[in-house]
Every structure is written in structure tokens, then in C-alpha cells.
Amino acid sequence: MVMATTFTDVVEGGVSWRESGDPAGPAAVFLHGLGGRRTNWDPQLASLSDLRRCCALDLPGYGDSAGTPGSLPEIAAGIAAWISELDDGPVDVVGLSFGGMVAQHLTLDHPQVVRTLALLDTSPAFGLDGVTTPEGWLDSRVRAIRDPEPSAPGIEAVVAGLIGSRAPADVRTTMIESMRAVSAATLEAACRALVRHDTRDRLHEIGVPVLVMVGGEDTETPPSYAGAIAERVPHAELVVVAGAGHLLNLEDAPTVDWHLRRHWTAAEAAR
User: Of 53, 47, 57, 31, whose CA–CA distance to 118 is shortest?
Assistant: First the structure.
């Protein structure tokens, strides 16, 4: 399916993205995770291009996008400005992990650009387990990022801890390649922004339809974190996908695509 779909890679004004579907159709914007890139959304761009103009964005410093990640609200502000140039109306926003955190700030600070929201394998705040500290988490991630070994065993170890027991073999390879392609400075800046994330006191302000999805075997942002989002957002829907880990859109693309299609269609019917 991916091979049969036409993808267009665009770089404009220092922002890069990949898109599929009708350029005149309603748009959906996909935001990748901490070590991801726009190509990580290829399964969704292939499957959903009949329904949306699907645009997978490279966050600042990733892929061909310029800059370095600032705070999550700063990243969200830049995305809001880009969306305003991309489409005349609001768009459907889908965010995974770090991208899901950015998507929360985008929806809260710039509600005029968001039509619906889908949050995959993400969290309303850093350190919800009450054990993980910013210092300890940063040390483990930054050490892996700065790994001087060509084979990057530190990155391989991080990725191994993200995927679920049913993940296809190529998911691990895809994510390792993605993380290796990002500069250490970009990843470190994103990590430092992530540990300051906390939207718990504001999630009740979200007024668009929200779908929250999480892998049942996600240990990075487990189902309890997804539940913490869903219980704070009015009328949010929570879906737990058995057997999947933290890279849900790659590990079980058919399930994610089905729920996104249903989510968008239901929102249209309600309007």
C-alpha cells in the first residue's frame, strides 16, 4: 500500500513535511515522536489519503526542518503559524509521544487551528509514575544520544524498550534509523523540553473531539498515562491496543488507521 501511494516532500520557509492525498481536501497533520521524523507516518499517509490531505511534519531540527527544539509551547506556536499557511480552516491533529505533548499545547494555545485531536502513546506530564526524575531520565537518554559507537548500541537499547511483543521486525529497524538520523543537539534539546511538560491543569479546556490511544504494552507512557489524559478532557475516548508498545502507529498501523478514520468521520457527522 505504501509503495502505491504518491508522497510529496515539501520544504518551505525552513519547514519540511511529507504529504499525500488531495491538496484541496481537508488536512490532517501528524507530529512524530522524540527520535522520529516525517517518514514514520508513511503507513498513515498511505492508508488515509483518500479521506484527508495528510501532512507529516518534521519538527524543528528534524529531517529538513530548520532550527532547534525550544519549549513545547514555542514548538506549538511555530506549528500553528505553519498550519495557518497550509490550510484555510482548522485541521485534524495527530501526535505520537513527544508529538502528542506538542499537540496538547497546540490545541490549548491555538484552538482555532485544530478541528480534532488524536493523542497516541503520550502523557499529560513528565514523571507521572512518581519515580522517574528529570535528571535520571535525561542522563539515560542523553547518554544514548551521544553514544560514539558507530552501531549506536545505546540507541538500540532505547528502541528495544519502546516496542511491544507483537511489533513487526522492521519497526525496530525503522526507529533506530530515525534516531540515528537526528543530530545529538536536536534530540538533547527535545529531551530537555519534554521534562518540563505538564498540561494536567489545562486539559479540561480542550473543546474539540479527542481520541486517546495507547499500546497495552507501552512502558514509556503506559495506559495509566493515557487514562490520565482521557479523564481530564471532556468526552475524550480512550482506546488501548493489546500487544502494542510505544510506537503504536508503526506497530499496529491498521488499528490506528481504522480508529482515526472513525474518529474523523464521527466528528464530521456531529458537526
Answer: 31
Of the chain, the end-to-end C-alpha distance in Å amounts to 31
pLDDT tens, residue by residue, 133-175: 998 888 887 777 676 665 567 788 888 999 999 999 899 999 9
Residues 125, 100 contacting (CB under 8 angstroms): no
The rounded distance, in Å, linking the Cα atoms of 193 and 219 is 20
CA 71, distance to chain mean position in Å, is 16
Contact 153, 143 (CB under 8 A): no
Burial of 254 (0-12, 13-18, 19+ CB in 10 A): exposed
- Its pTM stands at 0.95
d(CA 153, CA 143): 11
Helices 98-109 and 184-194 pack at an angle, to 10 degrees, of 60
Grouping H, G, I as helix, E, B as strand and the rest as coil, residue 75 is: helix
Pair 34, 187: CB distance under 8 Å: yes
Alpha carbon distance 104, 82 (integer Å): 16
Q: 159 and 177 in contact (C-beta within 8 Å)?
A: no
CB < 8 Å & 24+ apart, contacts of 174-178: 174/40, 174/250, 175/35, 175/36, 175/40, 175/247, 175/250, 176/152, 178/35, 178/36, 178/37, 178/39, 178/40
Which domains does the chain carry? 8-270 (3.40.50.1820)
Q: Which of 220, 223, 228, 225 is nearest to 241 (CA)?
A: 223
